[in-house]
Amino acid sequence: LPSRACPACVAASPSPRPYQLLWAIPIVSSCPAHGCWLEETLATRGYFGLWDFDRPESRPAPEQILTLDQRTQDAFMIGHVDLPRRQVHAGIWFRLLRTIIDELSCPLSDNRPSGADTIRQIWKETGYPVRDGQTLWRPYEQQPGTVQRHTMEAAATTIALLESSVITGRG
């Protein structure tokens, strides 16, 4: 798998450029500190010498992704996440996030009609086809990188829609 890193973090650090563990986790897509997408590199983790000559441009990540990734970073670093109504333990956060990812990835026929309608609504909000156009179900970790990124965008959209009461959670 290619390494991913924040171009701004790499540019700001002296050689050998430390690698952040969070960048290796596929449920994290952005750098909340710099507000940009993580970019792929073929270099080994922790060595970004190639970026001295061919550094990718920082691309701004959507606010919903930054919020999601900041919460995931908090879960890793401090052991809890501050949600609008309460604080939740990191274990609860990761279980919640995994449940959302699985619900967004499973075939619509596995859901009740009202659940399928909500999933369609979420994917429509992201601007991607339902399940990002996948015809076969695969676990998140086996999805192509672009499908993983789109699924995380859909997860971030789901959380934003839940927090703004546009959709209602059933669990």
How would you explain this protein's 3D organization?
The chain is mainly alpha-helical. The chain is 42% helix and 9% strand. The chain contains 5 helices and 6 strands. The protein has helices spanning 7-12, 63-78, 90-105, 113-126, 145-163; strands at 3-5, 30-31, 36-37, 39-41, 80-82, 87-89. It has a two-stranded antiparallel ribbon with strand order 1-4. Strands 2-3 form a two-stranded antiparallel ribbon. A hairpin with a 4-residue loop joins strand 5 (80-82) and strand 6 (87-89). The longest helix is centred in the last third of the chain and has 19 residues, at 145-163. The model has no long low-confidence stretch (mean pLDDT 87).
Brief descriptors of the model:
171 residues, mainly alpha, two-stranded antiparallel sheet, two-stranded antiparallel ribbon, 5 helices, globular
Number of helices: 5
Q: Quick one: how many beta strands?
A: 6
Strand content: 5-15%
Classification by helices and strands = mainly alpha
Question: In short, what is this structure?
Answer:
This protein has 171 residues and is mainly alpha-helical.
Question: How is the topology of this model organized?
Answer:
Blueprint: E1 3-5, H1 7-12, E2 30-31, E3 36-37, E4 39-41, H2 63-78, E5 80-82, E6 87-89, H3 90-105, H4 113-126, H5 145-163
Helix pairs in contact: 2-3, 2-5, 3-5, 4-5
